[in-house]
Amino acid sequence: MQAFDCAIVGAGPAGMCAAIELARAGVQVAVLDRAPRAGGQIYRSAANSPVPDVAALGADYAAGAALISEFEQVNLTHFTGADAWHLGDDGRILFSHEGNTQELRCREMLLCPGAMERPMPIPGWTLPGVMTAGAAQVMLKSDAIVAEGAIFAGSGPLLYLIVAQYLRLGVPVTALVDTTPRQHYLDAAPHLLRALRHSGQLRKGLALLREIRTSGVAIHSVAERLKVVGDNKAEGLRFVAAGRQHEITADTVFLHHGVQPNLNMTRAMDLDHQWNSEQMCWQVSADDFGQSSIEHVSVAGDGAGIVGADGARAEGRLAALNILRRLGHLSRAERDQKAVKDLSVLSSIKSFRRFIDCLYRPTDALRLPRDPETLVCRCEEQSLDDLRKGFDQGAQDPNTLKALTRCGMGPCQGRQCGHVVAGLLAQWRDEHPETIGYYRLRSPQRLLTLDELSRYHTVQVEAAE
Fold first, then answer.
1. Is 461 exposed, middle or buried (0-12, 13-18, 19+ CB in 10 A)?
2. CATH second-level architecture of 4-114+260-356?
3. How wide is the angle at C-alpha 283 spanned by C-alphas 281 and 285, nearest 5°?
4. What residue ranges do the domains of the chain occupy?
């Protein structure tokens, strides 16, 4: 079976930039992506937005349309609606596509799985009507659907961005409940000088906050002790701010507590990972060119560590340059020469990220549940109390706890509960999360039917012209 020179999983900013670089060098590239069109979460539907006033989504989003157009014009094989569920260290990829199981082989593999929102397991977070800020963006970008009169609670740039987008489109917002602790502003201050090198990003952030403040939306700062109220569905949010308790009525509550790399793909491949103490999450161990612990596997974008859209673009190009070197298209010296600009961009972005990561560092009060009845594993309906009982019975690590309680065995394969479980065990054992570890994941990475497996096809590489 003939192999592609490189297969890229994920067509967000990193995947698209890498694919463009490789295809223009004459490399046979296959790109697999779940979405019907390239763009990833950040540029979702940017080339064909259903939103009447696309300018309301911001200039950064609009810039994605040009990148998508450039990606769609280069010569490569693009599988849309493709869900990769097995990535082998032998270069074999199995994926679901149009109801069939497809197989392809590649010499080099680039993983760009992107980020996912960090769970915010406060009381009531699983009630109908409670969603993430990312879900609000998906609905808006994909179908121009909004939730009028919603409460937005949490902290971080994405939360402020979606609130501003709602306001620009004339969608009423009931309240912004900001949970950023006052101490975080003091902690971030020492990093401000270096962050000023990225003054454009700082100005954008300050403009968002100013836009929200002048809109008349009720803003509650330094909020804590959040609880979604309601019995069978969300009816509002209760919290403490400015020394007193508040309760605001709303049918929809959007939560956001930062983002973290989507680990299931890289964990299932058994790549080396390391704990990021600034972002409070696991990420792939990789060099400046995205080279992972497996020789022919590279990673780029937020799936390798949160860097944002501009950083993801740079990482995608850097990974492509290294793949071209490995395939014999570039010498090491040529690779290093071409990489200078993107390496400089990443260095600058990381200085800015230190400021952002410190300012919006996840707090234990919001990343780890405190109420015994709060669900941790939504798939298997395991509460904090259930997990504590499992721990008391001798489950000292995530995999043993999973075996004892089924936490992490559901359809999401631990995507929602993995970091929470590791954080709880670290707390209970009074040890560092890196000592605790993470779930042991295996293929398949999604639920499959025997009917789909019976329709098995291999992808043939078209001969170069």
1. middle
2. 3-Layer(bba) Sandwich (3.50)
3. 145
4. 4-114+260-356, 119-257, 368-436
In words, the CATH class of domain 119-257 is alpha beta
Q: For 231-288, what is each residue's pLDDT tens digit?
A: 999 999 999 999 999 999 999 999 999 999 999 999 999 999 999 999 999 999 999 9
Task: State the DSSP H helix or E strand holding residue 213, giving kind and residue range, or none if neither.
Answer: helix 199-213
Query: What topology is assigned to 368-436 in CATH?
Result: Arc Repressor Mutant, subunit A (1.10.10)
Region 300-306 average pLDDT: 95
CA atoms within 13 A on the CB side of 454: 3
| CB contact at 8 A, 118 and 419 | yes
pTM listed for this prediction: 0.94
Tracing tokens 């003091």 back to the chain, one arrives at: 186
User: pLDDT tens, 304-329?
Assistant: 999 999 999 999 999 999 999 999 99
Task: Note whether 119-257 and 368-436 share their fold.
Answer: no
Q: How many Å separate Cα 391 from the centre of its chain?
A: 29
Task: Please report where in the chains the tokens 């989504």 appear, as a residue.
Answer: 57
Residues 6+ apart with CB under 8 A from 151: 173, 174, 175, 176, 177, 236, 237, 248, 250, 252, 253, 254
Q: Give the pLDDT confidence of 99-122 residue by residue, as tens digits.
A: 999 999 999 999 999 999 999 999
Query: What single DSSP character describes residue 330?
Result: S
Look up residue 157 and give its amino acid: P
